[in-house]
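Predict the 3D structure for this chain.
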Amino acid sequence: MLPPVKLAIIGGGPSAFYVASRLLSLLPLKDPMSPPLRVHMYDRLWAPHGLVRYGVAPDHPEVKNCTNKFDATATDPRFRFFGNVNVGSTPIHSILHALHLPLTSVLNNYSHLLFATGCTTSTQHPAIPPSICCIPALSLVHWYTQHPSRPPPPALDKISHVTLIGQGNVSLDIARILLTSPSVLRQYDVPEHVLKVLSRSTVKHVSIVGRRGPLQAAFTTKELREMINLPEASMIPIEPTLLEPPSGVTLTRQQRRTLELLQKGSKNLPGSTPKSWSLHFYRSPASLTPPSSASASDMANLTLAHTRLDPTNSRAVLTGETSTLPTSLVVTSLGFHADPETTFFDPTLRHLRSSAGRITSSEGLALKNIYASGWAANGAKGVLASTMIDAYAVASTILSDIVPSSEAATTTAPPPPETGIAPGKLLNPHPDLDALPSEIVHGIKDGIVTQYDDWKAIDAEEVCRGKALGKERERMGWDEAVSFITLSRARP
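Done. Predicted structure below.
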């Protein structure tokens, strides 16, 4: 008989659910060869699914279909979800209502531990720190997805020009939201209070700045095509010489399609629409001078250093030239990194120390039964499909430790690194399978820890409210969710 396994997963996003789903399916409940198993998932957010709920653009509802699989995972009686719980050494300041659960409580109650905490911190540009006229993209994304951190709404009724620094999909998501009529966005998962702000917006132009050229831009052709086809906005034509492929360079399929789309331009002629947008290649922020007055017509001045590509390594290097771009608001979208407060954070990697799905010590030795997956392990890169592939590999690694002879483990798990044992006890080798940390027991009793049944009730209510408004759903914030959960639990 195999010893009982009690796995704690910290994080409730796609990677966490994919690992849980895979592990539960590889160790079927009614299989006599499966060990007694419990999978408990903790998330600092009160609602599950991470970036699927709080990161995916609202006009991309098809991306959220993966939640059907996550819902199926949650029906396994061996699985439990605990939301609004921040696991760590210190309380989280951005979400004050989250219950603080010390990591030691987790270590004392579980035999195995997976970090799927993602990359939750914005990468800042050293030349343009956050200010009244410079904010991170995450602030806008969290605003229009009603994230529990509750960032303030942008003053879109007082600005006319927005500049996005970075040319990835997040930048294009934000540009698309700003340039799309609220009457179109209304059908999607956009909260009513967000629609009200967007309806008062005076933004007329969005500039999207990148330090390299069109062949190095990180956005996908799908996102670019959506920008080009915006019904109420047009693209400022790009200098044709910038769209000529270098001689002797073999383009990828995506690069060819990107150049074709940019050469063709938007479906609306420049100047024919009330709003417009532009791509600025080979430009890097050098400084930002705030406006001299509070007048809406007085703009900040963004100094852009001109760049070129170093042919030996394709890095952007400065040419010595600069130009100035007047703008009302700068939004930096330069990627994300793991929270430095997270245990096992590596400041050089800017994500958790790990190898082949296993958390490693500062000496590079794997820590027994402690794992990492997704962005927490690999950095903020990849899409849902690559996240799933990585999660399945990590599940196989966990399985290889639980059932070393398992065919699934031996055929799919990566070779383990050299394993070291940290001094002292880390995890509990003989936990009570159904016991919960005392903090969670009290949190559930006090109504501040959410469970998956709570979420499903809220999910159904949000969809019902949205249907009445002719939209996908109408979201709840934390205060309303707490009241709803209390009433829902009180019903017979």
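The chain has 16 helices and 23 strands.
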